[in-house]
Amino acid sequence: MYNSQVSSTTTTYDMGLRQYFLDVYNYMTFALAVSGLVSLGISMSPDLLKAIWTSWFKWVAVFLPLGMALAFSFMVEKISVNAAKYFLIAFAAAMGLSISSIFLIFKLGSIVNVFFITAATFGATSLYGYMTKRDLTKMGSFLMMGVIGLVIAGVINVFFQSSAISFAISCISVLVFTGLTAYETQLLKDTYYELSGDEREKAGVLGALNLYINFINIFLALLNIIGAKKDE
Questions:
Q1: What is the model's pTM?
Q2: Rounded distance, CA 113 to CA 102, Å?
Q3: For residue 178, what are the domain limits?
Q4: pLDDT tens string 10-26
């Protein structure tokens, strides 16, 4: 009887963990859909697209997601689950605005191809983070230092517009954000067992936000590396 009870409990936990991750990926997928719809919607109006990216408003588009992320970091401990969900949607919309410039630079077919390459890369890396028995905790702080370095380099390059620096940033970004995908997936798995109730659900939404950011950064980096530009 004891073995049967243990097996039943383990199965329940496993089913709960699968549902937890299903919710996380659903949140992330919804955020990607919001970004895609906003970005594509802007691109369907060439006049609007050019108006955004040939005026001072382009700086708003570029820095709005970063500003929102910084502001959110100061509120994250106090906000509710629903507030976290609303922020995820708002952030995804802002990111959609920010990445709409890719339709001015890259061919549509190339954007689609790189998106699917990114999805395959992300999926494989996240699966590794979920399945691996290796403790990825130690690489977390190292990767976050890499993110800070990339943000600083990216902001500087907004003004210098160096193609060599941009390419280097893209290559490093792929490595850093695929690593973060594996690390944060494992962290989500650990969090599931450490928290319960609203705290667990909130952690799932925040985890979806982190994974969404990783996906977007991998996508943009790969697009910059292998994407076909309109002027080529």
A1: 0.89
A2: 13
A3: 2-226
A4: 444 578 888 999 999 99
| Backbone Cα Rg of the chain | 19
pLDDT in tens, 143-168: 888 888 888 888 887 787 788 888 99
Q: Quick check: is 232 in a domain?
A: no
Q: Is residue 209 part of a domain?
A: yes
CA atoms of 5 and 65, how far apart (whole Å): 48
Distance between first and last Cα of the chain: 69
Mean pLDDT, rounded, for 199-217: 94
Q: Would 213 be classed as within a structural domain?
A: yes
Strand partners, 229: 106
3-state helix, strand, coil in the chain (%, to 5): 90, 0, 10
Domain count for the chain: 1
The angle at the Cα of 54, spanning 174 to 69, to the nearest 5 degrees, equals: 45
Asked if 182 and 128 touch (Cβ cutoff 8 Å), the reply is yes
* Residue 130 lies inside a defined structural domain of this protein: yes
